[in-house]
Give the backbone structure.
Amino acid sequence: MDLVRISEFVWEIPKSGEMKVPARIYASEKLIELARRDQTLQQARNVACLPGIQRMSYVMPDAHQGYGFPIGGVAAFDLDEGIISPGGVGYDINCGVRLLRTDYKESDITAKRKELLAEIFKEVPAGVGKGGITKLSRNVLKEILVRGAEWAVEQGYGTAEDLDRTEERGRMKDASWEFISDRAMERGIPQLGTLGAGNHFLEIQKVDEIYDAEVARAFGINEKGQVLVMIHCGSRGLGHQIATDYIELMENKFGFKGLPDRELINAPFRSDLGQRYYKSMCAAVNYAFANRQMIAHWVRDVFARVMGSSKGMRQIYDVCHNVAKVEKHTVNGKEKLLCVHRKGATRSFGPGRAEIPEVYRQVGQPVLIPGSMGTASYVLVGTKDAEEMSFSSTAHGAGRVMSRNEALRRFRGEQIRDELAKKGVELKATSWKGVAEEASAAYKDVDEVVRVSHETKLGKLVARLVPIGVMKG
Amino acid sequence: MEKRYEILEHMADGKFRAYGRSLGECLENAALALASLMWDPERIKPEIRETIRLEATGPEQLTVKFLTELIYLLEVKSFLLGRVNEIRVEEISQNGKKTYRLEAEVAGDRISPQYEIYGQVKAVTYNEMKIEKSGDGLVLQVVVDM
């Protein structure tokens, strides 16, 4: 496969064969080498062959092989001639990140750090098969699917201000529960308000570095040492089942012959099945927003109880990493609505976009990029450049470079806990084996990922955050 | 005893090969492989039985649906699979269309502190899925999203 270097961080697979558009990869030499090792580039090329794709099939700096679409893939499709694909969103619909600020400094919480983490661990259900604290009725679940975080706030989980600082204000308006299977509903009922397992985590962090003081201030990040809380999770079994269901329905309807990869299965966006998936996906997005809203509320409760106050614990933002959205973008000089798939990518709207909260409209949206367990995470800001470069998208995280087997052979959970403790990082987990699988050495260097994002202007660096306490599901 | 399954290297997720003389036996062993990514199936006491019945358009779809059912049982009924008591796969041809029908009885126990659960499989994918003849048996390869 041809791979042409356009500039230091920009690579392109020129249009050939069935490709309708070229594929463009944003990566450093180090990162492109990692992408070459697996199917990432081939998958980006396959996406470029799909009907109605606009401009280019984009690949973010943290990309790795996914199912059908690469993780870190961004593709936008014409609404009339294009498609929507569950594989372009991913199984964990609206896997995303929420970040809360506090008025506390690291020194304020040092003595109570252990207690804070232990209390959060008690309060926020995590791990496999661990149900939420609320037994939902099906009717309430339906309401959550339609109203997302709005429902949660109405129930007393958090404040209206949280909604102002959430993508889509915590509610995708096109959501419907009507086309969601019983199986998906049943998986959703016990899992609302749970963190889950795998790479999902909750961290108490401190600001380690501020790169752009003005933007940081606009986001509520004032100084080094300031304490923040990051929540990383998604739509749990409900979203996974919706993806599985619609892959099957689309296969049964359209067949998969001629597709280079079965997970590229899709439906025309305007088709009945396309719309059913889209509305169900929006509902799963809402479920995940409600999920993070509830978890954030419990974290605030714990701070109020242990520290005496949760004053100043404002939400900075909540972003989706796995989603398809209808957005306005310019293609060939013409503004049009497109269905933008971001699979393992963060929206990165620059200043002025109407979709971002008024408080951030002067500076651009906060982009939240979690690192791997126990390593740095980053806050970036969206840019106008990203509109032209990636339909306003940038990276979403670190991405694995080592298999779980190998991580299990190399590391032990308890050893990781002890090493983190030496660095002053507290760790609570539901399984030590699970901790070993998520060892930070099994992940790409997130510093390199955000450096490329910053240099290319896909998203500009604002602050670096490091963990003080880690809770792993 | 012959090897029933093998966990393979996969950068981001879970991958395994399951062996068997028939598709049913491959699926039985795939169920154990899937479980082994999350808990040790050999340690699970066979306290509870669950019956699974489903249909699919092909062996690959049957694989996805059967293994997804085990994730469903885990998440909705807190069921940890220990073994497959019985599994039957039928291939039915009707009006030139093939249907695969599966009926299985699985045994295991509810989640409890006595069992360590160390991983979570989110979904079963078609990525790199293969069902191939090998000697007088079959090999089924599956990648799952973790």
Q: What stands out?
A: Residues 4-401+443-472 of chain A form a domain with the tRNA-splicing ligase RtcB fold (CATH 3.90.1860.10). Chain A touches chain B through 49 residues (CB under 8 Å).
